[in-house]
Each structure stands twice: as C-alpha cells, then as structure tokens.
Amino acid sequence: MRAVVRQPRLRCLDHPRRAPAIAQGNVRWRMTTSWPKSLDTIYGSAAGLCERVSRLTEGRFQIQPFAAGEIVGGLQAFDATASGAVECCHTYSPYYFGKDPAYGFDGGMPFGLNSRQQQSWMLYGDGLKLMRELFSKANLISFPVGNVGVQMGGWFRKEINNVDDLKGVKMRVGGMGGVFMSKLGVIPQQLAAGDIYPALERGTIDAAEFIGPYDDEKLGFVKVAKYYYTPSWWEGSAQITSFVNAAAWERLPSTFKDAFEAAANEQTLSMMAKYDAVNPAALKRLVAVGAQLRVYPRPVLEACYQVTLDTFSEFSNKSADFKRVYESWVKFRDELNQWFRVAEFQMDSFSLSKIHN
Amino acid sequence: MRAVVRQPRLRCLDHPRRAPAIAQGNVRWRMTTSWPKSLDTIYGSAAGLCERVSRLTEGRFQIQPFAAGEIVGGLQAFDATASGAVECCHTYSPYYFGKDPAYGFDGGMPFGLNSRQQQSWMLYGDGLKLMRELFSKANLISFPVGNVGVQMGGWFRKEINNVDDLKGVKMRVGGMGGVFMSKLGVIPQQLAAGDIYPALERGTIDAAEFIGPYDDEKLGFVKVAKYYYTPSWWEGSAQITSFVNAAAWERLPSTFKDAFEAAANEQTLSMMAKYDAVNPAALKRLVAVGAQLRVYPRPVLEACYQVTLDTFSEFSNKSADFKRVYESWVKFRDELNQWFRVAEFQMDSFSLSKIHN
Questions:
Q1: Which of A83, B40, B103, B215 is geometrically suited to a Cys-Cys bond with B93, CB 3.0 to 4.6 A?
Q2: Alpha-carbon gap, residue A118 to A128, rounded angstroms
Q3: Rounded distance, CA A107 to CA A145, Å?
C-alpha cells in the first residue's frame, strides 16, 4: 500500500512509545492502519470506529487513526501493536501468515466462509475464541471490524482458458493467495498498491488482483489489462481485524471496553454495507471503459480447489495450531453450507436469474 | 405469537403511560416486543440491545424489554410506541402493512433484497431515509435491529408439484405473504405462533410457514406436515425493526442516542450471525425425524414472481408513498444484483457445490 502521509499531531511522533495518556479518567489511543486514506471504505471504517467510540464516551476515550506509513508501515501494524508502540491497529491478518498460517482463518481462507458465514463463525461459532487464543501469544486481542465480501479474481492481459494458462504468470496477489497460486505455476508478486499499475503497464507483471470494482477502479488497471476475472477464490471474504494490545486493553474501564466492542461490531456491518452500495456503479463504469468480465472456468477452479485442500493438509501436518483451527472451521463451514444450500442459495439463484437492466 | 407472561416490575404496569423517569440524568425506557421469550434469537436480540445500552451508559440509560402480551399484544407494538404508551418497541414492519403497504419495504418484500443487500440499502442506499420519512408521520423513528435471512417456505401435508396445487390451500402465513399468495389461490390464515400447531394437527389449516429450522422445530410442525418447502420467496430476508417514539428520542442526550444507534447496528450483525449458527443443526435434526425437504418447482416460483410484480404495480397505482419507495428499492436491488451475479454468486455457486457431509 502506498502511504498517504499527512502531518500527524506532533505529540504522537515525539513519543512514539509513550504510555497512553490517562488524565482525569480520559484515555487517548493511537490506531495504526494498513491502509492509505484513498481506500475510503476500509480506512473510513477505522475512522468511523474511532469517531463512534469518542461519541459513546463523551470524548473521554479518544482513538486517533493513522494511515499506513504515518507511524509505521502498513504491514508493521501487527508488530507495532504487539510491542505496545501503539495501543491498537486496523489491518488484515493474512498479511502476517508468515508468523503462523493459522492467522489466515481470521481474514478468510481460499474456498472458505463467505462474509455472513465468517461473521457467524466469529460471533457464535468458535472463530473468535480460537483466533484470540492464537493472538494472545502475541499479547493481542482481536476484534473483527469489517468485511470486504467476495473480491474480484484479478486483471489479466490474456484470457485464462485452462489451468495451464496460469503457468508462469507473474501476478500481484495480496495476503495468502500467493501460497496457493504458486502451486498452479503462478509466480506471485507482493507489491504495494501504488506500485501495481506501473508494474502492469511496463510488463514487469502479467496480472494483478487488488480488491473489487470500487477500489480497483481508482488504480486504473483496466487501461493495461482488460480481462477482469471472477471470483477471487482465495478471498471469498476478507475480514478486517482490529488488534488491541492486551495490556492496554486491561487498563481500560469496562465502559470503554463496551464502547470499543460495540463500535467494532457496528463497523463490521457498516463496511460490508458500504462496499455493496459502491461496487455496483464502479463495475458498470469499468465495463463501460472496456473491462471484459470473465469467470474462471470450472476446471481451473477445480484445480485451485485441489491445491487448496493439499495446502490445508500440509499446514495441518506442520502446525498443531493450524490443525486445531482448521478442524473447527471446516466443520462449521460444511454444516453452514448445508443450510445455505437449502435456503439462501435457492432464493439467490432465482432472484439473480432475473435480469432487469 | 403466544405471549409468555412473566411478572413485570410493578412500577411499569401501574403507570403505563407515565412520562419517562429522568432523575439525575438517568433515563428509563420500556421496549415492548412482538415476541414470546421462547423465540430466543429474536427476543434475545432485543434483550441484548437493552443490555448493551445500559453498559455503554454506565447504567444511566436503562431500557427494559417486555415480551408480547406483557404490556400490549405483539401486533400492537407499533401503535403503543406511536402513542407514547411505551418509548420504543422491537417488531416487524410488515405486520402493519394495513396502515401502508410501503411499510413492507422495511421488513422485506417478496423477491426482494437478501439480508446483506437490505443492510446496504438501509445504511448506504436510500432505505433508512425513505422509511424514516414514512414512519415520521406516525411520530416514530426506525432503527434496523436484526435480520432473519431467507426463511423457509412452509410445512405442507401434500407436495406442491405445480401452481394449481396451491389453490385452496389454507395456509398460515405471516406478514405480507398472504397478500401475494392469495392471488395464487392460497387461503392465507393469520395465526399466532402457539395456535399454528393445533390448527395444523386438526386440519383446520393445510400448511403453515413460521420462520426457519431453529424456530420451527420448537413448534413441532414436522409431526403433522412433513414436506418442508424452500425458499420463502415472500420473506427472502426479514428485517426486524425497533421503533422509537419521536418525542422520547428528542429528549435523549446525544450520548444516549449514540448508544442506542450503535447497539441497534450491532444487533443487526448479531441476530443474523446467531441464526446462521443455530439453523444448520436444527435442520439436521428435523430431517432426522422425518422432514422431507422440497424446493418450490421453478414454474411455481415463476407464477409467484408474476403475481408479485402485478401486486407491486397495483400498490404503486394506489399509493404515491409505495411508488416512491418501490422505484428507489427496485433500482438499488437490480444494480446490486448485477454485482452479486459477478462475485458473490459465482463464489457461492462453486463452494456450495462441494458436498462434504
């Protein structure tokens, strides 16, 4: 992600590791995020959380959000919070899968839970409990704060007609997607948001995935790679998470804990609702300027599915943490899918078959 | 709904129309609901909202929830709040479509928005704005507080193989469903929850729809009508709404307004998450004791769709309010469906095709 640097309040930068200021019952926290402010849905959700917490506490608990790069880089949010350099952050757990592949379940796994299913697993399944057990080892408490839904499957300069067409494709992929795609012959590239377009234009990379129509449009990919694939099987829902330093959390009065938790849950609802409101028009605009929508052919998805299962097995063999979470997750997913097949999918299938415009 | 009467706090019943008690900055409200306490997901969500508001305000703003029948009957919640007899309620807007068919859009219309789409229309489309304009005429402010998702399409003693099989079927249908179903020859019956099973057992009615597996199981329908149809095309998502008396709202300090609004949004997330966690196991249990799952045949759904469009036209011709909301709603739905066809549906279609257990 490219950091959009603004002038932070000097007090904060002068004492980046100071203890939180507590005066007359007031608490001030900093929230470092992994986002540039131009990602107004995701960054805006962080700002919305801070604003609601302030209003709920009559200004007694103030959290200031910072864009990536203002305090630390976007991918250092987790460590900065774990160390206590900041009290909290707003990020995406799969960025840190190198620490533990089980972190991937917090953000969403390939062929995993959709956004509604993820929310259920978190709040009424074992999801939040299991993830908090993992993150507690890093002195962190996790709070789901949003979801992006099914992302798009990337911009390509050439069509993908069969699984061999993926071989050798240099593709920018975020999160854990590259781990799985590399087994299909894709050469995954990690690039910050601002570096993707130039790389695609110069031919340094052949393809790129970012988020969905609303965010992708801003980066201009359609000008240099017109085939816009769906779905992002590796990010069938992307949960955004706020981590809070455990010691900072314990110092909070219970009312402030309630304010943070309620505001986080509210943002989980709100981020998805906003994406659903802004993506349709962006998709239309992209198609109007030449984007060619393509669905990954079924045999390609089947191959992706198979490498996903193989990779889950590998991780389970290597990591007891991964195995424990995977077993809970897959049981929850499979049972919930049975119910979704009966009701949601039957209704959606009919409703979405009606083309009105 | 069958009221589960418990002993309310006497102070409340002694002065049912008293002004809210405000002492030393404290506010006490009553929330009448349309639910028996046995509906632990929906009623539990009302209780959860009240609990969170209390915690957010350090007990200064207390709302006490009441089951249907404790203060007024379940279907009098709207009027009791409009008149100021209670400060707020927790109900389902289509119960009141006799006042204005446009109220139906608040709870969900046949072949309408799914739960995620409804949340987007409410928060980032014109949904909440339009509905509040309508409800303001009744001195009410509306807050979405939950969703049930796609309901099941009812319990039948005989299979429905074609649209003629619906003719003459005496069926218990909640909300607005009966308006649409009667045009297919169904004879809709309004029955409270506790009266449905005896009527079905005696043959006074031939079929009944209630909610979904988790709630339906409690009422025992499977013992007397084994064909369990999906989907409930007339309740493809059922939004639960809390109405607040406008004058009571205006008297609230802004912090209490924030607490109510944040808690309501949180419950919208939470209710759907809970239903998704409890419905799968209930569905399995129902099938284990003999429920025969059936999907409404496509020609039946097409006929239902056609009478739905016809009814929307009739309502639009009769009511300027309905027409205005319908035009906004249908535009939002159709554009959002285009996007759902591209991403969500492609992913769900693949994921749900994988049968694991």
A1: B103
A2: 10
A3: 11
- Specify the CATH number for the domain of residue A269: 3.40.190.170
From residue B236, give the alpha-carbon distance in Å to each of A212, A349, B102, B117, B170.
26, 12, 17, 11, 22
Closest partner residue to B273 (CB to CB) among A124, A340, A342 is A124
B346–A230 C-beta distance less than 8 A: yes
Answer whether A36's CB lies under 8 Å from A43's CB. Answer: yes
For tokens 């769906």, name the residue.
A230
Length of chain B: 357
Shortest distance between the Cα of A72 and any Cα of chain B, in A, equals 30
Distances (CA, A) of A304 to A8, A110, A117, B278, B324: 44, 9, 21, 31, 46
CB contact at 8 A, B305 and B233: yes
- What is the chain B residue with the closest CA to A279? B339
Best probe of the B interface among A118, A265, A286, by most B CBs < 10 A, is: A265
For residue A76, what is the DSSP state? G
pLDDT less than 50: residues of chain A:
1-23
Q: Which residue, A113, A25, A65, is CA-closest to A333?
A: A113
Which two three-digit tokens encode residue A348? 């959606």
* Interatomic CA distance for residues B65 and B88, integer angstroms: 9
Nearest by CB: B266 against A266, A305, A354: A266
In a domain, B175, yes or no: no
Q: In which residue are the tokens 């959290």 written?
A: A63
Structural domain contains residue A270: yes
* Chain B residue whose CA is closest to A146: B269
Q: What whole-number distance in Å separates Cα of residue B142 and Cα of residue A63? A: 29
pLDDT in tens, A46-71: 999 999 999 999 999 999 999 999 99
Q: Given CA atoms A63, A65, A70, A73 in this order, what sign does their dihedral have? A: positive
Q: Which of B124, B212, B265 sits opposite A266 (nearest CB)?
A: B265
Range of the domain at B270: 23-147+236-276
ipTM for the complex? 0.92
User: Within a domain: residue B32?
Assistant: yes
Round to whole Å and give the CA distance between B15 and B4.
Answer: 21
Task: Note whether A120 contacts B277, CB cutoff 8 Å.
Answer: yes
Closest to B103 measured CA to CA, from B113, B90, B114, B92: B92
Q: What is the pTM of this model?
A: 0.92
From residue A309, alpha-carbon distances to A322, B59, B346 in Å are 13, 50, 19
**B260, containing H or E segment:** helix B254-288
In a domain, B316, yes or no: no
Q: Are strands A88-91 and A239-245 parallel, antiparallel or unpaired?
A: antiparallel
Q: How many domains does chain A have?
A: 1
Give the DSSP H or E segment for B195.
Answer: helix B193-202
Does residue B152 contact residue B212 with C-beta atoms inside 8 Å?
A: yes
Contact (CB<8Å) B56/A351: no
